[in-house]
Design brief:
Keywords: Glycosyltransferase, Golgi apparatus, Membrane, Signal-anchor, Transferase, Transmembrane, Transmembrane helix
Order of helices and strands: HEEHHEEHHEHEEHE
Radius of gyration: 18 Å
Structural class: alpha/beta
Shape: globular
Enzyme class: transferase
Pfam families: Galactosyl_T (PF01762)
Number of domains: 2
GO molecular function, one term: hexosyltransferase activity
Family: Belongs to the glycosyltransferase 31 family.
Number of helices: 7
Largest sheet: 4 strands, mixed
Number of strands: 8
Strand content: 15-25%
Distance between the termini: 6 Å
Strand order of the largest sheet: 1-4-3-5
C-alpha cells in the first residue's frame, strides 16, 4: 500500500497527497487549501477530500463493481473519500496503516482505506467537495490552445482537482495557464457550466465530458 511506503520512507513529512495520475492538481489552489486547513491538519487525524456519502452498493450480476452481502453487508457504503485525490496528515496515514494490519482486506480500496480503516483508526473526513470538478471540459476550455486571454481571460480556474482522461497535453497546457495566471494575478474564478463536482450525475459519451467521482482505483 502506498500509504505504508509514505509512512516509512517519508515519515518526517507533515502531510501526504494521494492522487491518480490522470488528475490535474492546481498547485496554488492546493496551497490555499493547505493554508486554510493548517490548524485542522495539525490538531487531529484528518483527511481532506471529496467525501462520498450514502453511495449505494452494487449487487447487480455482471457489474464490474458487484459486491456480495458477505463482502460488505447493507445497502450503502460508509462515508469514504474519492480516490481521485485526497490530502491526509501523517497522523491519519499512520493510523490507517496500523489498522490495515488487523482488518481483513476489502477489494473496493477507497472504501476499505478511507472508509473502514479511517473510521477504525479515529480519522475524520473533512469535506472539500467544492474544490473538485467532474468536468474535463472545464479544464480543457480554460486551458485551450492559443492566446490564454481567449480562454477564460484573466480568470483563474476555480478548482484544485479535476480529470484529464490521461491527456498529457492538457495537463501541460493547464500547468502553463496556472503559471500565466499567477504572474498576472488572475481573479477567481473561471467555471464551465455545471462543472462543480456536487452537481455530478451520469457520465457523458466520448473521451471528454463528465466523470463519475467515485473512482475505485487500486493503490
Amino acid at each position: 500500500m502506498a500509504l505504508r511506503w509514505a509512512s516509512t520512507r517519508c515519515s518526517s513529512v507533515a502531510r501526504v497527497l494521494k492522487m491518480d495520475d490522470d488528475i490535474f492538481v492546481h498547485v496554488f489552489q492546493l496551497s490555499a487549501i493547505l493554508a486554510k486547513a493548517s490548524l485542522e491538519l495539525s490538531n487531529r487525524k484528518v483527511i481532506l477530500c471529496y467525501v462520498q456519502k450514502q453511495m449505494p452498493i452494487s449487487r447487480s450480476e455482471g457489474s464490474k463493481w458487484k459486491v456480495t452481502e458477505s463482502e460488505y453487508p447493507g445497502s450503502f457504503f460508509e462515508d469514504y473519500c474519492s480516490g481521485w485525490a485526497y490530502l491526509a496528515n501523517m497522523a491519519a496515514v499512520r493510523a490507517m496503516v496500523t489498522e490495515a494490519q488487523y482488518r481483513p482486506y476489502f477489494w473496493v480500496d477507497d472504501v476499505h482505506v478511507t472508509g473502514t480503516l479511517a473510521r477504525m483508526g479515529g480519522v475524520s473526513l473533512s469535506r472539500i467537495n467544492h474544490k473538485y470538478t467532474t468536468e474535463a471540459d472545464s479544464l480543457a476550455l480554460w486551458a485551450k490552445p492559443g492566446d490564454p486571454r481567449d480562454s477564460g481571460g484573466f480568470l483563474d480556474w476555480g478548482y484544485a482537482f479535476g480529470p484529464t482522461w490521461g491527456d498529457v497535453t492538457l495537463v501541460a497546457r493547464a500547468h502553463r495557464k496556472v503559471l500565466w495566471c499567477r504572474k498576472r494575478a488572475c481573479k477567481c474564478c473561471f467555471k464551465a457550466v455545471n462543472a462543480n463536482a456536487d452537481s455530478a450525475s451520469a457520465p457523458k459519451n466520448g473521451s471528454i465530458g463528465k466523470a463519475v467521482v467515485h473512482s475505485l482505483s487500486v493503490f
